C-alpha cells in the first residue's frame, strides 16, 4: 500500500477472485484444442449450451458469469446433486441458459439474462473434473444460425454444430 492506495497484486487480486473461484474447483481440462462445450443462439432468442458428457462421467457444474475487468460480476451457477449416476454412453446435453435443468440445483442466480456488449465467461465441468471454458458476448452469438461458438479458452471459434460434436465426442476417447 502506498499513500493509502493498494498497489500491484493487492489491486489485481479482488478482480481475479470471482474467476478463480469458478475455475479452480474444476480440476482438469479437456485435451488441448478440443472443447466439450459450445453455445448457440436459437431462433427465439434463447442461448443454448451444448455439452458432451463422456461415458462413465456425469455433468456436474455449469457456470455463466459476467467477465468484468473490475471484478465482482454477477453469475448463474447450476450443479447436479452429488452422487448423480454416470452416463452409460457418451451423450449430448442441451441446456437453455438461465433455466435450471430438471434434477439440477441452482447455486447462484444473480445473473438471469445476457446484455449486448457485456463480456461473459462460461465454465462446464463433469464429475471427473474435465472442464470446458468459453469467453463470449451476446453480440458474438447472435446470427450464428446452425453454427456454434466453441473453445478452447482464449481460442474460441465458430464451427458447424456437427464439427463441434464430432471433435467433442472424439475427445472422450482420451478421457
UniProtKB/TrEMBL annotation:
It comes from the Bacteria. This is Uncharacterized protein. It comes from Micromonospora auratinigra.
Amino acid at each position: 500500500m502506498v499513500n493509502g492506495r493498494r498497489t500491484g497484486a493487492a489491486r489485481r487480486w479482488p478482480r481475479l477472485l470471482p474467476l478463480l473461484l469458478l475455475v479452480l474447483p474444476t480440476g482438469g481440462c479437456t485435451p488441448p484444442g478440443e472443447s466439450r462445450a459450445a453455445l448457440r443462439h436459437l431462433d427465439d432468442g434463447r442461448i443454448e449450451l451444448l455439452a458432451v458428457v463422456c461415458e462413465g462421467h456425469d455433468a456436474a457444474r455449469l457456470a455463466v458469469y459476467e467477465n468484468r475487468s473490475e471484478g465482482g460480476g454477477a453469475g448463474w451457477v447450476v450443479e447436479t446433486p452429488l452422487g448423480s449416476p454416470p452416463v452409460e454412453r457418451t451423450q449430448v446435453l442441451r441446456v437453455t441458459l438461465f433455466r435450471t435443468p430438471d434434477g439440477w440445483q441452482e447455486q447462484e442466480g444473480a445473473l438471469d439474462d445476457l446484455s449486448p456488449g457485456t463480456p461473459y465467461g462460461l465454465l462446464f465441468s463433469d464429475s471427473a473434473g474435465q472442464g470446458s471454458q468459453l469467453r463470449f458476448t451476446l453480440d458474438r452469438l447472435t446470427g450464428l444460425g446452425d453454427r456454434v461458438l466453441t473453445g478452447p479458452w482464449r481460442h474460441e471459434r465458430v464451427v458447424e454444430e456437427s464439427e463441434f460434436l464430432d471433435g467433442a465426442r472424439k475427445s472422450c476417447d482420451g478421457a
